[in-house]
Amino acid sequence: MVSAGVLDPVRSTERSVTPDESRSSLLRFLPFIAPYRVPIVLSIVISILGTGTALVIPLLTQHIVDGPIVARDFAGVWLPALGVLVLGLVDAGSIWLRRYLMAEPSSRFEIEARGALFRKLQSLSIGRHDGWDSGQLLSRAITDMSTLRRFVAFAAPFLLINTVTIVAGALILTWLSWILGVIFLVLAVPLILICARFESLYRVVSRRAQEQSGDVATTVEESIHGIRVLKAFGRSDHQAKRFVREARTLRGTELDKVRYMAILWSVIVGLPPIAIGAMLGVGAWSITQGTMTTGALVASLAIVASLLWPIEAFGFLISELGNSRTAADRYWEIMDLPADIDDPLHPVDLPKQVRGAVRFDGVSFSFPDADRILLHDVSFTIEPGETVALVGVTGSGKTALTSLIPRLYDVTAGSVTVDGLDVSEMRLSDLRSLVAVAFEEPALFSASVRENITMGRPAVTDENVWAALTVAHAEKFVADLPWGLDTRIGEQGLSLSGGQRQRLALARAVIGTPRILVLDDPLSALDVNTEQLVHEALADVLSTATTLLVAHRPSTAALADRVLLLDNGTIAAQGTHESLLATSARYRHVMGSTHG
What we know:
With 596 residues, this protein is an alpha/beta fold. It is built from 21 helices and 10 strands. The chain has 2 domains: 19-335, ABC transporter type 1, transmembrane domain (ABC transporter transmembrane region fold), CATH 1.20.1560; 358-594, P-loop containing nucleotide triphosphate hydrolases (Rossmann fold, 3-Layer(aba) Sandwich).
């Protein structure tokens, strides 16, 4: 029900991102990292010092070659050799210390950023979620966050560390021999330009790969959740072909990434040996001319060798930078979405005693960017303790109307009030503490029966849970489960029958004697006998709650004090079930067409 325009931030795989925007997407994580700036900066400084020792070792080597070795003084080798050993140990220790210092900040960054994303997803409206592929959201919350953690822990620090190392090495090399330093720079400048060009091209392909990975995840998730349908209709092969098709598309994109990486690595690995060969030739000539010592040449070649890993690592680091920028873009696309349903700036406080009178006053509603107005000028009142049934053909807007009370959607025009207070002026937490909802399609979680019913409310006792299960006529089958209330019911409750899932959802709605109860045909999966038992047990709850009940069966409509007939987006008739059967041909048609 959401237009493509609303989905562009999530689904578009070709969304262009300007360079300025891409840079800022990573810098925007600084507030997450700021609390850990001391260990992060310290780890970078230690790493730079550690790599610096690797550049000092060639200078000691030069001293050994030009000093004790040339003088044939074997005893003079021991002291500088001991210095080399100490510097090597310092380098190794710096690696361990850097990893130790970075482990906690990077993992905490991932937890906090992922938690912020989860809270944002929870704050967005149902309309936003209805238009998204779940696999895309999962890839953002899991895969992309892991990419960003690796960037914080490794790629970002070493982009700086390696840059400092290469610059320092080039300066030392130039100090040893200006002509060797020039040779190094002549080959380094093209390498830097190639890396910069690679990053801009690689990032486009990386974005496409991450989006396609989300599509594959969506297909897998849908296939798991819909396994019964696929098997029942014999369509497993069809879904498998869809998966293979999407996987092949992803493979093609990943191969494009490999091709880019192959070109980059060929350049990064191929250029340094050319530089070494040129330096060796020029150095040998300089030694014969007496303008360079043998030790200086050995030290220069050792420095270049120590710079090979930082240079070669740039290929990996730049690819990680591209992946991380893409992940950051995708993260902030979600975080930057406006909260279309949020607490008001100046919320009203609920009175100490809430009666629970619900009023719809001239309410109109249409889904975001939809062409058709689903509800038009709907007005009615539900008095405290009254049960009102809502009846209409499929697609008439019954579920949308019930979603307006807890503000799962907001009205397009008009108002919904509780005890005269507009629901849009209440805190969402206050409003939703008053309203309990049971949907036709029950949503259960991979948790115990108790956890599914209490939904994290610590004040709810087992006695309350069993009382709610009794109302839903679910106490017997729950008691027969292997571990009773502690039995885990599996993801989406698929280990239970449809009727059992509905009764657990109903028990979750009625627990705690809610002030306002919204029941969206919660008994549709029950057989007639069980439905009657639930009706009898539910009567006491309905007598104390203000209830809006979506009904498709005459037996359910008969529970209500009053019935509203929703037709063409308006209230076409209202009265008791019996009076409408007697006076409204349209009502009789709806009851006949939806019953059985």
